[in-house]
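Reopening: structure tokens for the 2-keto-D-gluconic acid complex, inputs below.
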Amino acid sequence: MAEARPRVWVSQPLFGDIVARLGEHFELDAATDVTIWSPDAIADRLHDASGALVTLNERIGAGEIASATALRAVANVGVGYDNLDVAALHARGIVATNTPDVLTETTADMAFALLMAAARRVTEGERWLREGRWTQWSFDTLLGHDVHGSTLGILGMGRIGQGVARRGALGFGMRVLYHNRSRLPERIESNSRAAWVDLDTLLRAADHLVLVLPYSSATRHLIDAAALAKMKPTATLTNIARGGLVDEDALADALSHGRLAAAALDVFEGEPSVNPRLLALRNVVLTPHVGSASLATRRAMASLAVDNLIAALGHGPRAGDPPTPIGAPAAGGIPAKR
Ligand code: 8YV
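Re-run output (same inputs, fresh job):
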């Protein structure tokens, strides 16, 4: 009798032709519909699985893997992996992987789209027009704030942050400041045309602040009322990283009292729920976590995750050597991102 093939679980529908590559090596248990998985349901799917390919929707921690005795690899589709308890996975000898690099430029593009939409009031203007409120052209309609020649502040200067920096410096003649747990090597600073400053200086100096750092208990609500109070009232805040970095109530206060000009948010603390106070404000651009959502990039992410899983489970040309494993979790501070 042929030996049963190892089973892998794919938590959400991805691209069928890419997921099918897993079927060459494993028995596939792939979701065919977008599914909200409870912790118990995740534990159930992992129970006799050798590998899992998951998205940010699925939290994989000690509880979910407790009875998954065959589990050897978890491949996350995404560069951020705050949904994985990496320490718990590593403690069990389970390989964890993510999808860096392939989404860098697409996500940096989106950061700029959001920054510009907030600064120049693009979505606010569109809503105003659609509401039929444009009855006559006037000189002071929807005055925004300039992007070109302004100061760009980047919090979290990993690969995506560097992409945002290059766009700002080369495309828009911006002065680029960044803050990161550690200062980057001079070569990277000079390629990104960016100068390191402390967090306080970054908050005070930025005309447009972009958050591109990982979320963890150390960075939760890093942008709180005190941080927002340091920002210029004419500044904008763009978040393409994780919603929990920002205290959304404090942000809503600042936006509604004119202490911050505008914000652009692609990510939310309780997503897909959005804080109703943010929904009610005009000076905030809201998008549904689509930073990496170009067709080519989402295909590249799915493909890299599949390569990682195949390799981590000992198959394919890189058997035993997945292309992008996640290392040991970083300790404290503001980690470099992505
Ligand atoms: C992904 C993201 O779409 O990569 C990330 O960290 O937030 C997004 O690009 C998401 O993680 C899909 O799981």
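The two ends are 46 Å apart (CA to CA). The pocket of 2-keto-D-gluconic acid is lined by residues 55-56, 77-80, 103, 291-292 (CB under 6 Å). Marking as resolved unless the reporter disagrees.
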